């Protein structure tokens, strides 16, 4: 800006103003970061299987956020000077106000989370717990920057809601589901029907949030809202059972001998004690009560019209998952919109 002639010094205003706004933004963000992490809390890190890690941040000053919000999560124990975006799967009313995340292992930070010998093998208590989760040896400090984003539309205002998730995209969808369930228990909502479609590689992945899902669907049904869950097992084409599918995946986890997960050419699933048996029983009970497991991939061109037939008013659709799933939902919704049928669509992506 110093190349400007002396007769045009007033034009420097257009440079100083953006600089001042940027510095103000940095100052506010830094102040919020310090405030959010000024209270010393603990973080429970639990490997769910050989792919994902469930994280619960307790005692954070972050107490309010909208469904679908995300934060920048930093845990120096697993990665120095690293911050990773993570969608908040819980709501301020669930999990006693704690922040719950589900991270899929890739490289670096997320891989360290899954393979670190210091993580806890204690199962996280779900939305209906009475006390805090205990985590001997698995508690570390986490720093939260946020929350950011969140849902702008109110899905409670629709007659029918369709939630679609692919793999760990369930974190975004679950926050909406928990919010609707909590509100349905307090007041009468226009919502009449809700359906959740979740595509996973193996039906065992239902255990990621089995207790949260069971509690949410029970609350919705108690409020007179017709709610259903369809889990699509994409690793099973129907010709083999789930046990064969797990063997083909080449993954095995044994959290009792070092809290580690590994992948091999041919895996053998071994018993993991009472905690694992309890989780297995809970998962099977959950499936039996409200979840319908379907082999294969979800065909959105058939599912969305099916849901539309039951809708007596506007339909709200939210999807979070791989690009192919989101594209299929977008295309089907675009073809289904008519002058008599309005559809609200919210698409959340994995990209960053």
TrEMBL record:
Pfam annotation, one family: FAD_binding_8
EC class name: oxidoreductase
Transmembrane segments: 161-182
Keyword line: Cell membrane, Electron transport, Membrane, Oxidoreductase, Transmembrane, Transmembrane helix, Transport
Topology within the bilayer: Multi-pass membrane protein
Single GO MF annotation: ferric-chelate reductase (NADPH) activity
Domain of life: Eukaryota
GO biological process: copper ion import; intracellular iron ion homeostasis; iron ion transport
InterPro entries in alphabetical order: FAD-bd_8, FAD-bd_FR_type, Fe_red_NAD-bd_6, Ferric/Cupric_Reductase, FNR_nucleotide-bd, Riboflavin_synthase-like_b-brl
Catalyzed reaction equations: 2 a Fe(II)-siderophore + NADP(+) + H(+) = 2 a Fe(III)-siderophore + NADPH
Domain FAD-binding FR-type: from-to ranges: 20-154
PROSITE patterns for the chain: FAD_FR (PS51384)
Compartments where located: Cell membrane
CDD domains: NOX_Duox_like_FAD_NADP
EC number(s) given by UniProt: 1.16.1.9
Family: Belongs to the ferric reductase (FRE) family.
Protein name: ferric-chelate reductase (NADPH)
């Amino acid at each position: 800006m110093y190349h400007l002639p002396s007769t045009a010094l007033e034009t420097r205003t257009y440079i100083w103003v953006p600089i001042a706004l940027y510095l103000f933004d940095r100052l506010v963000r830094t102040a919020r970061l310090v405030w959010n992490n000024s209270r010393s809390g603990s973080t429970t890190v639990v490997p769910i299987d050989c792919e994902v890690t469930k994280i619960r941040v307790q005692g954070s000053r972050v107490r309010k956020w909208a469904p679908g919000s995300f934060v920048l999560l930093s845990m120096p124990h697993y990665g120095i000077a690293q911050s990773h975006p993570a969608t908040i799967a819980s709501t301020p009313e669930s999990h006693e106000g704690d922040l719950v995340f589900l991270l899929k292992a890739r490289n670096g930070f997320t891989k360290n989370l899954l393979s670190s010998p210091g993580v806890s093998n204690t199962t996280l208590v779900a939305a209906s717990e009475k006390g805090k989760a205990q985590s001997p040896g698995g508690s570390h400090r986490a720093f939260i920057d946020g929350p950011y984003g969140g849902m702008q539309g109110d899905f409670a205002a629709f007659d029918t809601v369709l939630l679609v998730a692919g793999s760990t995209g369930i974190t975004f969808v679950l926050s909406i589901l928990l919010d609707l369930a909590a509100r349905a228990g307090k007041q009468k909502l226009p919502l009449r029907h809700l359906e959740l479609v979740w595509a996973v590689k193996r039906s065992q992945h239902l255990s990621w949030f089995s207790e949260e899902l069971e509690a949410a669907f029970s609350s919705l049904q108690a409020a007179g809202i017709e709610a259903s869950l369809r889990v699509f097992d994409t690793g099973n084409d129907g010709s083999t059972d789930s046990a064969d599918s797990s063997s083909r995946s080449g993954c095995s986890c044994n959290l009792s001998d070092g809290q580690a997960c590994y992948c091999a050419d041919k895996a053998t699933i071994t018993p993991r004690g009472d905690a694992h048996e309890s989780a297995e029983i809970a998962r099977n009970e959950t499936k039996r009560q409200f979840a319908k497991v379907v082999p294969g991939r979800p065909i959105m061109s058939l599912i969305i019209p099916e849901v539309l037939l039951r809708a007596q008013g506007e339909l709200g659709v939210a999807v979070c998952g791989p690009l192919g799933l989101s594209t299929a939902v977008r295309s089907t919704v675009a073809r289904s919109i008519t002058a008599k049928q309005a559809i609200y669509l919210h698409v959340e992506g994995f990209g960053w």
